[in-house]
Amino acid sequence: MRIGLAGVGRIGAFHARTLLGVPAVESLVVCDADQQAAAAVAKELDAEHVADVETLLRAGLDGFVIAAATPAHAPMLRLAIEAGVPTFCEKPVAHTLEETLELARLAATSEVPVHIGFQRRFDAGYRRVQEAIAGGELGFVHTIRANTHDQSPPHASYIPTSGGIFRDCNVHDYDAIRFVTGREVVTAYATGGNKGEAFFAEAGDVDTGAAVLTLDDGTMCLVSSTRYNGGGHDVRLEAMGSKATLTAGLDDSLAMRSAEPGETFPAGPPHQTFMDRFQPAYVAELTAFAEVAKGVTPSPCTVADALQAFRTAEACDVSRREGRVVQLAEVPDL
C-alpha cells in the first residue's frame, strides 16, 4: 500500500514511523506546512515528500493519514473525501461543533471510508473492559470512572487553539465510555479550575476539569482531567458492576504512590506521555486503518462516532461556563 501523511510534528512523525512498521504499507509520502520539516522526516525514514496536500492526494495513494494541527483537519478531510481517498484523521475531526456536523453529513453521503483516531478503542485494557461489559461479566454496571491526567502542560501557544480541556483531553474519555458501554450520554454537569499557569485562564480554559455524565441506562460516569499530574501520565477507566469491577490502565506504570506502610505497588516506572502509554494501541489502530483502506473491514470509529464524543465535550463546556446540568438533547446532532 502507498500511504500519504499530512503533518510531521510530534504525533505526525510518530505515526510516520508506526506506518512504516505496518506490514501492508510499502511506501510513505509526507507533506507539512513546514516543507523543511517534511523533507527532514522523509530523509530520515527513506520516504517521499511533496509540497502540499493537494499534490499528496494526487500521488496515487491507497490511504491518507491526517496528523496536522487541529485547524487543518476539517479542510484536509473534505479534500480527501472529494478525492475519494480512504482517510485516517486524528481527533478532533474539526475545531467546532458546526464543522463537525458538516463533515459528519458529508461522510454519511460518501462511500469513502473515514477512520477517526481514538486510539483507546485499540488498547488491550479498554477492549477487555468492553468485552466484559458486553458479556455480562460485571453484572449491571452502575458507575464508570475515567481520567486523562497529563504529566505536564503543553506549550502556552497550544491552548488557545486546543478547544479547551473537555474537547482536547476528555473527548478521549467520552469516546471510550461510549465504546466500552455501548450507551449514549444524556446529561452532563462539569466544572473546572486553575491553579497553574495564567495562560489557561487567559484563554478561557481550565487546567483541571471534572464532569458527571449520566448514560441512557442510568449509569453514572465520573470523568476528570488535569494538565498537572506530576507523578506521570495517568489514563485509566474503571467499570464498576454488581458482580465485579474491572480497570483499564491498572498496572505497575500507574502514576501514583501508595500511602499504606510497606506497600510497593505500583513498582513503576510511570508513563510520561500519551505516546508511550498507548504505543501498542497506535500500532493496532494504524494496522486496522490499513484494513479499512483496503476495503476489508468497515471503519471502527466513524465521523458520526467522533461527533457524539464532541457533543459531550460541548455539553461539558457549556455546563462549566453556565454552572448547570446540560441535556445532550440541547446540543445539535445529525
If you had to describe this structure to a student in words, what would you say it looks like?
This protein is of the alpha/beta class and 334 residues long. The protein folds into two domains: 2-119 and 283-300, NAD(P)-binding Rossmann-like Domain (Rossmann fold); 121-273 and 309-330, Dihydrodipicolinate Reductase, domain 2 (2-Layer Sandwich), CATH 3.30.360.10. The chain is 37% helix and 21% strand. The chain has twelve helices and 13 strands. The strands form two sheets. A seven-stranded mixed beta sheet has the order 12-11-7-10-9-8-13. Helix 4 links the parallel strand 4 (63-66) and strand 5. Helix 4 (70-83) runs parallel beside helix 5 (97-108) and helix 8 crosses helix 12. Keywords: NAD, Oxidoreductase.
